[in-house]
Write a structure and sequence with these properties.
2 helices, mainly alpha, about 0% strand, about 130 residues
Length: about 130
């Protein structure tokens, strides 16, 4: 009999809703919908802010940097052409320091780098 009373008491305690517990059926609006609306308004304002930052700050900055790099590269190209004119159509030979272009073991494709450019890089095939 004692276990029957204990089981009945447990069932009664479990059936009584607790005051701190919120159920989905209790959502009658009010606070939940106000918070959701505030979040949506914040998201719209934040999105608009970053759209303006992208269009009015980031894109113009990229264009200015592109123009600056283009001018620097044009000056560099003009300087190289001037150096070629002074040295009979070729760039002057780079100093042969022992730590430059050091090859301990050959590459599978040859002595030159995989990204070899004959106009810019020293041809290591000629040294053999």
């Amino acid at each position: 009999m004692n276990s029957l009373a204990r089981n009945a008491a447990r069932a009664t305690v479990r059936a009584v809703p607790r005051g701190s517990r919120k159920f989905a059926t209790d959502a009658t609006g009010g606070d939940y919908f106000a918070k959701r609306q505030a979040i949506q308004e914040h998201a719209q304002a934040s999105t608009e802010l970053w759209r303006k930052i992208s269009y009015y700050v980031a894109f113009p900055s990229i264009i200015v940097c592109m123009a600056w790099v283009y001018n620097v590269e044009q000056e560099h190209h003009a300087h190289e052409e001037h150096e070629k004119e002074l040295h009979g159509g070729k760039l002057p030979e780079a100093p042969a320091y022992e730590y430059l272009n050091r090859r301990v073991k050959p590459f599978p494709w040859g002595n030159n780098s995989l990204f070899f450019n004959a106009e810019v890089n020293k041809d290591m095939e000629e040294e053999e």
